[in-house]
Amino acid sequence: MDTNIMSHTLKSVPELKYVNAENVARYRAIMRFIYGEYKKLRYWMRPEEVYTGVSAWDVLPEYTLEQCANDLEQLVEWGNLTSRHDGGRSSTLEEYMRKKMQYFLRPYSIEIERLLETLEKVTGYGGSLEPTLFESIADKLFDIRHNTATMEPQQAVELWSSLYESFVRLHENAADYIASLQTARAGEMMVTNSFLIFKEQLTNYLQNFVQALQRSAYKIEGNLERIGEPLRDLFFDKVVEGELAKPRLEESLSKDEMLVEFHQGWDNLRRWFLGGQTEPSELTLLERATKDAIARIVRSVIRIQERKRSGLSRRKELEHLARWFTEMEDVEQSHKLAAFAFGLFPTRHLQGEDLRESDRADMSMWEEKPAIRLLRSRSRKRAERHETQPIPENAENKRREREAFLLRQAEEWAAIEELTARGRLPISDLGTVSTKNRLRLLYWIGRCSSAAAPNHTFMTPEGLKVAITNIKTTNRAQLVSEDGELQLPDYELVFTLNEAVGRRAVLVAKEV
Question: 287, 407, 429, 461 - which has most CB atoms within 10 Å?
Fold first, then answer.
């Protein structure tokens, strides 16, 4: 930042002295009266008018016109008021020489009184969540993208003022409202029973805001990304041109100073919605804070409901439910009643090997073979001591497992050799195949059809190269298997088996 700007920003503000001066009540009363008349479009005030207006409030006993005149001069010295000589109302030279004065508010004083008037109405953080501001910002950014070239300077000024005003309102109101939900008063309210009535309305309010945020965020981010620096600079040139065309009596910013101010505002807008290189956007943080507030409300409601239920006896309800169960004629009806009364019990996820023997879509899980797993007891009671057992000898089990593995591998190699012996194999020429070969062929077709397979080719773990030469064929074929028939494109599969892999297959067959 420029050194001159910093020195101007950090200077003292004598216009604020009257707020904490020794006779603060007198100065505040005078300033509030003159500010009230200013809002009624009465600008220049005489001491007699000020004194009459302040005295009518009956807040300053024993206040005199002379004290009022001295206070007005003190406010002029501090820079709160400006004065001029009122000679038009004098009928004699003596009255003119008495220096009758008129007083007018300075710009700093107007803003100070506006601020004080606003502060007097503050009872909390306030704020609001206005979903319509997102749509308004998105529409205005869209206008900048598509209409800047044909836009008049005055239209550009109005568009930028409306856009930035909506952005500031969105940021300040949302920040204030979310902050109000974090106060101690809000925390105390969320633990009372009366909060249950207010909960639904508050939750819907927050959810509607989040939904509007999610709907419009992509449009706003997309428009900001597509408005490049040339288009932005062209738009701001028109805004500056429109601002300079306004006739102003007091000193205004130069063109370069306006451009710096507008670019700073644009950077604030982009950073709020798009974030920085390493930091998340304020939009993301706002969405996260709103969702956290919803979760906090839900947790508070659950705690209130649990607290209300904890003091109630459910003995009669349970006795009625028990009698209901005793009147059931069969166990199926009891199961249904238990499902309605208690719901689903907590599930347990058990990991195991999938041993499905068929790919039928209509096959029930109850028809499959069970995978037996031994569950360890979680009881805190100590298990009884057992005598030390020797390490079991598993040589025979290992031998049987090895023989079974070699047998499966030999069968797999035999099936691969049967397919590769044909070289090129259309689906329509397969005839009837076994279930295992059908699963193997469908797996190969899936691998060749995936985007990860270059040239629709892949290599199996056994070293078999499988390729599909007519991946875009429109011909259909019927794959007949032991467990059903399947309609699919008439792919042509090409198999290639190198010599090293072939020799290993022969060795496996000899071992078996």
Answer: 287
Burial tier of 134 (Cβ tally within 10 Å: 0-12, 13-18, 19+): buried
- For residue 476, what is the enclosing H or E element? strand 476-481
Quick: pLDDT tens for 224-239: 888 888 888 889 888 8
Q: CA 141 to CA 273: how far, in whole Å? A: 12
Contact 108, 80 (CB under 8 A): yes
Of 440, 446, 443, nearest in space to 414 by CA: 440
Q: How many CB atoms lie within 10 A of CB 72?
A: 24
- What's the pLDDT tens digit per position in 238-288? 888 888 887 776 667 788 888 888 888 888 888 888 887 777 888 888 888
Tell me the one-letter amino acid at 142: F
Give the gyration radius of the chain's Cα atoms: 42
In terms of Cα–Cα distance, which of 106, 87, 108 is closest to 43? 106
Phi (first) and psi of residue 101, to 5 degrees = -120, 155
The number of beta carbons lying within 10 Å of the beta carbon of residue 448 is: 20
User: How many Å apart are CA 54 and CA 239, to the nearest integer?
Assistant: 44
DSSP state of 41: T
Q: What are phi and psi of 88, to 5 degrees?
A: -70, -25
Mean pLDDT of 334-355: 79
Q: Which residues contact 505 (CB under 8 A, 6 or more apart)?
A: 413, 416, 417
Question: Going by C-beta distance under 8 Å and a sequence separation of 6 or more, which residues neighbour residue 54?
Answer: 29, 30, 33, 60, 63, 68
Q: How many CA atoms within 13 Å lie on the side-chain side of 397?
A: 3
Query: Which residue(s) pair with 467 in the sheet?
Result: 457, 494
The encoded tokens of residue 468 equal 């599909």
Which residue, among 389, 440, 446, 392, has the nearest Cα to 415 in the 3D structure?
Answer: 440
What is the DSSP secondary-structure string of 406-452?
HHHHHHHHHHHHHHHTTSEEEGGG--EE-HHHHHHHHHHHHHHHSTT
Which one-letter DSSP state was computed for residue 18? Answer: G
Q: Distance between the two ends of the chain, CA-based, in angstroms? A: 85
Segment holding 291, helix H or strand E: helix 282-310
Q: Is the CB of residue 474 less than 8 Å from the CB of residue 460?
A: no
Confirm if 185 and 126 have CB atoms less than 8 A apart: no
**Cα angle vertex 491, ends 490, 494, to 5°?**
140
Q: What is the pLDDT of residues 439-489, one digit of tens each?
A: 888 888 888 887 777 788 888 776 778 888 888 888 888 888 888 888 888
Which secondary structure element, helix H or strand E, spans residue 176, and what is its range? helix 153-180
What DSSP string runs through 123-143?
SS------THHHHHHHHHHHH
Q: What pairing do the DSSP bridges indicate for beta strands 464-468 and 457-459?
A: antiparallel
Contact (Cβ atoms closer than 8 angstroms) between residue 33 and residue 50: yes
